[in-house]
Structures are given as C-alpha cells and as structure tokens.
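Researcher: We're reviewing a set of sequences before deciding which ones to prioritize for further study. For each one, I'd like a predicted 3D structure that I can look through quickly. This is DnaD domain protein. If possible, include the structure in token form so it fits the rest of the review sheet.
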Amino acid sequence: MNMQSVDAEKQRIQQIVYRAKQEIAQVFARLEQDLCNIDNAAPQTEVSEMYAMFEQEFGRLLSPLELTNISNWLDEDHHSPEMVKAALREAVIAGKLSLRYIDAILLNWKKQNFATVKQVAQHTEQFRQRKLPSVAATREPRPKKMMYNWLEEKE
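Model: Here's the predicted structure for DnaD domain protein, in token form for your review sheet.
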C-alpha cells in the first residue's frame, strides 16, 4: 500500500465516524425531545417515592415480578401513583400485605369509576360509618367465667 491509499482510507474512515457521530447526536436529541413531550407520565420522584413506600410497608425489597406488577398498574391499567398509594394504605389498614389484594382494591375502584383519591376517601368514610354501628350493635358483652387458679391450689 502506498502513502496516498493509506491517507485516502484514513480520510474515508474519519468521514464515516463523523457522520455516525452526527446521526447519534440526532437520535439523542429526538429521544430527549420525546421524553420532554410525555405529558401523562407521572413525575419520576413520585413513582420512586411510591416504590419506596411499598418496600417500607412490605419490610423488604420488592422482587422483579412485584416491580412489574406495580409498573403495569401505572402503565397498562392507567392508575395514578396516588391511587396506588391509597390502595396500599387500605391494604395495610386491613392487614393484607399482598399485591393480589391491592390489585383487587384497584380493580374495585376502577369498576366504581373512582378517579381521584378524594372520591375513594369519601367512599371509604361512608363505608366505615355504615360498618361501625352495625358491629357495635350486634356485639353483646361476654359473661365473666370463673377460671381455676392453679397457683393458689393447696396441697
């Protein structure tokens, strides 16, 4: 190979690299623009806060399957992070820390056309007000039973 062919090859490679860099810059610019144009996506801090809340309530790190389920609630089922947090709170109050239970809560709210946490709170308050008097009215005081005290038994 002579010097001219080496220089020509070097120039050709530099042009290819230059064009590739320009194309990559354009792709990144388009990606950045697309990310800025997403209107319906929740702010990342709110979503990461929600995941942290799940981990805190569950007392452990979430598995990849659990992360996928939660992500599906946001992306496919179109629940807001506030609604998912509210469903988690309801599950904690009920003492049922499972994603299936939370999924059932979210599904129930969707069937009842609840779109905001305020609607859910009103419904929950009404439900608890109806429940409390009926539970108190049906409960009768237990009669006291005499228990055998083996500690005071005489030999």
